[in-house]
Amino acid sequence: MELTQLSIREAHELLTTKKISSVELTQAMLDRIHDVDKKVKSYVTVTDDLALEQAKKADERIAKGENVTPLTGIPFSMKDCISTRDVRTTCSSKILENYVPQYNATVTNKLADSGAVLVGKTNMDEFGMGSSCENSAFFNTHNPWDLERVPGGSSGGSAAAMSASLATFTIGEDTGGSVRMPAGFTNVTGIKPTYGRVSRYGLIALVSSFDSIGPMTRDAYDCATVLEAIAGHDPHDSTTYNSPVPNYTKDIDKPVKGMKLGIPKEYFVAGMEAGVEAAMQESIRQFEKLGMEVREVSLPHTKYGLPVYYLLLFAEASANLARMDGTRFGLSVSDGAKDVIDIYLKTRHEGFGDEVKRRIMLGAYALSAGYYDAYYLKAQKVRTLLRRDFETAFSKVDILLAPTCPTTAFKLGEKTSDPLEMYLSDIYVVATNPAGVPALALPAGFSNNMPVGMQLIGKHLEESTLFQVAHAYQQVTDWHKQQPPL
Amino acid sequence: MAQTIDTKTVKHVAFLVRLGISEDEAQTFSGQFSSIIDYFNMLNEVDTENVPPASDIANAENVLREDVVKPSMSREEFLKNAPNSERGYVKVPTVLGDE
After folding, report:
1. Residue B78 lies in a domain
2. Superfamily of domain covering A3-258
3. A359, A361, A422: best to mutate for the B interface, most B CBs within 10 A
4. Active-site residue numbers of A?
5. Is B2 part of the contact surface with chain A (CB cutoff 8 Å)?
6. How many domains are there within chain B?
C-alpha cells in the first residue's frame, strides 16, 4: 500500500480503523515531498515540524475517538496566498518573501479545527497573476506529466502537488480559473465554489469581488468532503452566505438520469486542440449514457468575458495591492528615501514582478479620469450581460459543460514574451467569476499524453449538483485515477 | 481604433500606483499596454444602453451588526512585521514635505 496515493476517503478509513497513523501518513508525505519535489518544485515552504506535531495531535484525537472528522490526520497543502499564523505566506512575491502572518485565515482555522495536517504552502503566480505559474518570483513549477511543461496557473503549485501525490488534498484559489485551469493541465479535480460560499478572511486579496477559495483533490467525492469543511458563513467576511452548508457527500450517489446538460455553442469554436475537442465529445456521450439530456445553449457574450474579467481585475488589483507599501509589513526599501513616497516607489519597484506592475498600472489607467466610463464602467455593464447569459442558460438546463482550456499544458517559456497571448489561455474559465457561479474541473481524458480538463458550471449555490454529476462520471471513467510518470 | 499609450502616460499611471519605473521599463510597458488596451476596445461593440453596471454578485443585502468592543491583536504583536517602529508606532520618514 502506497500511503501517498490514498484518497481522503481511503486514508480516513485506514486511520479510524487504526491500520495506519497520521504520523506515518504525514511522514510518508514529507519524505515524498523531499524526494519528488526536487523535480516538480510545487512547494514554497514545507512545514515538517508543524506537520508532525499536528499529526501527533490528530492521532491522539483518533485514539480517544473524540471529535474525529473526515479530515482528521489527513496531510494537505495550501496555496501561498492564504494566511497561516507563524508560517511564512508569500503570494510567491519578493515583496512578501519574509512575511509571517500574525493570524490565520478562516479557512486555515477551519482546517486546523477539523484536524487536517498542514504539510506546506504551494507556489503560485505572483499574487495570482498568471496562467502558468511562471510569474512566481521564486521558481517555476513543473507539470508532473511532462516536466518541460507548465502546470497552469495561478494555483499551479497546488495542482502540481496534488497531481504528483505530494499531499492528500490541496487548497487553491480561483479568481478567474486559477483552480480549474491548472486542475485541467495536471489531471486533478478542483472546484471554484459560488462566490461567498467560502470565507475570504485572511486570503490575500487579488480581486475582492471574484476571489473564491476551493479544494483540489483526487476525485469529486474528496472535493465535496473538503468543501463541506471550509464553507460557511463567517462574521469576518460579510459577503459569505448565511445559508447552511449542505452535506455534499450525502446525495453524491444520486442518479443523474433526466438532468439537463447544456453545451454552450460559443465555447466550441475554432482554436480548440483536436484532442481536447474529441475528449469533450466523448465526455458528452458518457453523460448521455448516464441518462442526461444534452442540449445546445447559447452564452452570447462569451467572447467579452476575457476583456471584462481582465479590466475589472486590473482595477480591483491596483487598489488591493496598494497595501504593499513597505511601511507596515513585508519588504521595505528605504535606502536614501527622503520621504514616505520614496519608500513606496522604491519598495514596489523592487518588490513586484513585471506582470504585477503591468496589471496595477493598467488598473490605474482604466480607473483614471477620462477612461473610467470607457473601461471600468463599460466592463461592469457587460458584466451584467454575462451574468444574464448564465441566468438565461440556467432557465433551460441544470448544468453546463465546457473545456477548462483550448489546449493541453503548454511548454515553459512558450507564452511568457506575450502577455496578451497568455491571457487568452483563460478564455474558457474567466466568465464564471464575474457571474459568481460555481464550476468544477475534472479530468476528461488525454491529448498527446497530456491531461485534458473539463468543467461543469452550475447555478448559484448548487455545488451539490456539480459533485453529483462529476461523481457519476468518475464512476464510469478512470481518467482521474491515472498517475503521472514521475 | 489603434490606441497608443505613450511612455509619458505609462510614467503617469506608474506614479498613480506609487511604482518606481525606469525609462527602459516605460518603453516596454508602453508597447504592451497599447496592444492590451486595443484588445479591450472590443467592448465598444456591445450595446449597453439601459444596462445597469453590476454592483454585487451575491445578491447580498447590507450586513449590520452591533459595534461590540472585543480583544484584538496586541500592539506588540502587530509591530512584529513592521520594518521600522518606535515607541509603539510604525516609523516612516517625512509624510508632508517641506516644499
Report:
1. no
2. Amidase signature (AS) domain (3.90.1300.10)
3. A361
4. 79, 154, 178
5. no
6. 1
Q: Chain B: residue nearest A101 by CA? A: B81
Q: How far apart are CA A256 and CA A151, in angstroms?
A: 32
CA distance A75 to chain B (A): 29
For residue B35, what is the domain's CATH number? 1.10.20
Facing A381 at nearest CB: one of B37, B40, B48: B48
Chains A, B: CB contacts within 8 A come to 166
- Tell me which DSSP letter residue A291 carries: T
Q: A342 contacts in B (CB within 8 Å)?
A: 93
Locate A471 and state its grid cell: 461523481
The backbone torsions φ and ψ at residue A178, rounded to the nearest 5 degrees and listed phi first, read -70, -10
Q: Chain A residue closest to B66 (CA)?
A: A235
Asked whether A185 and A143 are in contact (CB, 8 A), the reply is yes
Which pLDDT tens digits describe chain A residue by residue (486 residues)?
799 999 999 999 999 999 999 999 999 999 999 999 999 999 999 999 999 999 999 999 999 999 999 999 999 999 999 999 999 999 999 999 999 999 999 999 999 999 999 999 999 999 999 999 999 999 999 999 999 999 999 999 999 999 999 999 999 999 999 999 999 999 999 999 999 999 999 999 999 999 999 999 999 999 999 999 999 999 999 999 999 999 999 999 999 999 999 999 999 887 899 999 999 999 999 999 999 999 999 999 999 999 999 999 999 999 999 999 999 999 999 988 889 999 999 999 999 999 999 999 999 999 988 889 999 999 999 999 999 999 999 999 999 999 999 999 999 999 998 888 888 889 899 999 999 999 999 999 999 999 999 999 999 999 999 999 999 999 999 999 999 998
In order of A14, A94, A324, A411, A469, the CA distances from A440 in angstroms are 28, 32, 32, 25, 10
Q: Is B71 on the interface with A (CB under 8 A)?
A: no
